[in-house]
Write a structure and sequence with these properties.
Helix 1 packs across helix 4, helix 9 runs antiparallel to helix 12 and helix 10 crosses helix 12. Strands 3-2-4-1-5-6-7 form a 7-stranded mixed β-sheet, with helices on both faces. The termini are far apart. It has a domain of 307 residues: Phosphoglycerate mutase-like (Rossmann fold). The N terminus and C terminus are likely disordered. It is 45% helix and 8% strand. By secondary structure, the protein is of the alpha/beta class. The protein is built from 19 helices and 7 strands. The structure holds 2-acetamido-2-deoxy-beta-D-glucopyranose (2 copies). The site of one 2-acetamido-2-deoxy-beta-D-glucopyranose has 5 residues, from helix 8. The site of one 2-acetamido-2-deoxy-beta-D-glucopyranose has 3 residues, from loops.
Amino acid sequence: MFPGLPRRTSVLVAALSLVVTRLSCSSLSAPDIPHIAAFFGTKTRYEEVNPQLLRDVFSVNRSVLRPPASERCTPVHLTAVIRHGSRYPTVKNIQRIQRLSELVRREAAGGSGGAAQWLQDIQSHWEMWYTEDMDGQLVMKGRDDLRWLARRLALLFPSLLSEENVARVSLRSSSKHRCVSSVEAFQDGLQEHWRQPVHDGQYSHQVDDQLMRFFERCRGYVEGVEKNRTALLEVEKFKHGKEMEAVRRRALNEDCPCVRPVDLVEAAFFLCSYELSIKSLHSPWCFLFDEDDAKVLEYKSDLKQYWKRSHGHVISGLSSCPLFHHVFRTLDKAGRPRRSVTSHPASILVGHAETLLPLLSLLGLYKDQTPPTADNYRTQHGRSFRSGLIVPYAANLLFVLYDCQRGPRLQLLINESPVRFPGLETEDAPLYRDVRATYRHLLDGCDFERECEGRPVGRGPNTEL
Ligand SMILES: *[C@@H]1O[C@H](CO)[C@@H](O)[C@H](O)[C@H]1NC(C)=O
Ligand SMILES: *[C@@H]1O[C@H](CO)[C@@H](O)[C@H](O)[C@H]1NC(C)=O
């Protein structure tokens, strides 16, 4: 097609000519949101899960709070486990993007005729702007994600996140820069909501990696999953399987049987996601993929999350035992008839997708009957385990405790939508004592030392009510 080019780059040449073809057909009429925006897995924007926010970032729907109408209930405590907001790519992905952009530049300089023309087209549509020092840091939109979330929660729980309560909110964060920036932005949002004087860098959160980055401290998890080459076998198999092969063929070259670099296909897909989540841009790279391609790439990242962070290995969920116990201890205290004046109206815990997924798994959520594997892509379309819906940027797991006539009740919201506890599916907000009974085995066990270090320990770490 383009004689004289090395085989490896000719693939990309073909790829980019396809970009431009698809661009010229559709870019002018294209909506602002790429057609594949819902398939970016953990790189999905929060707005893809809650599109009403595209019209109004402060839109809240109070009907998501559903204690029984027959009992007079008032919310008495909120615990929120929140993922950081939109961020820059990490170094590894920035390097992939660099390789992709260098290929583009080299071709633009060396190409001739038609090739030179389309390369100029892509270059006028897109410019490399990522640098390695951006490494995973929170972007401006990521700060907005958390500020806006804080303000929506203040609207949804006016009595808990009230003006006088703001100073009594407990805040903890992972030590990672993007999380600390996120918990600061959350505090900014609360202050803005109540028009309190800007505190001038006076934030009141605690950094707590034991709680928010438990996964790297759990030896059983690190050795059994993270460093275990066979733990992610399904992901490796799928990466080299027929569905991914077809995407590479379609996206990079219809009929070239030569080199089809996997990571560059993914780099182009991620580029589309980053330009959207960081700059709200519809990048020309998005046109490389149709919806079927995007679903395959989404499945690949869901497989990874499932086998690395979720139900694929029981130890992933168990590694979150410290966080599980922390949440229930907080709820226990908040639910006591005579609450101590020192108890917190709200507890805000900011971490990672790697923090939320194990906890959700431990709670038994998003566990489909058939695990996703390399071989069953075709039967997994209806799966509940879709990381883009569960842990997009600014994902949040809310535990809402109510005081009701028959006693305390607990409701779960994920990304501001009601979700029922497994085993208690008849009610949105079951009695707290029924929730405790459901998780009795974990409340009485789920010991970090025993599960993660294999050390036997004494009983009864958490028997208070
Ligand atoms: C609020 O949510 C309920 C379901 O929880 C839905 O029926 C209703 O249409 C929503 N209202 C708005 C204004 O989005
Ligand atoms: C590694 O993972 C495989 C597959 O999940 C498992 O069978 C094996 O026990 C693990 N190895 C270690 C050392 O934990």
